[in-house]
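Open question from group meeting: does this chain pack into something compact, or does most of it stay loose? Before anyone orders reagents, we agreed to write out a predicted structure and look at it together. Recording both the input and the output here so the notebook holds the full record.
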Amino acid sequence: MKELDDIIVKIKQVLDAKEQEIETATSASTYAHSALENRKLEVALFENSARHVTTDPTQKINIIANFEKDAKRLIDDINKIEV
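Structure tokens returned:
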């Protein structure tokens, strides 16, 4: 579904921005690196889940709403990583 692809792209943009922030920081903590790796795994799982979702048009609205909710939580978790 294109809508899910758009959600994934947005999450990856946030993740890439946080990764760059950590890489360019003069003294990023071990916690920041570890948290970033954990979020990368969560993004990969999120993307995998999106690839295996049903394309049933009667469920489309609910599926997108649930993925948007989960994406918001994931983006919030990424943004909480302190550099």
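Observations to bring back to the group:
The mean pLDDT is 93.
The chain has three helices and no strands.
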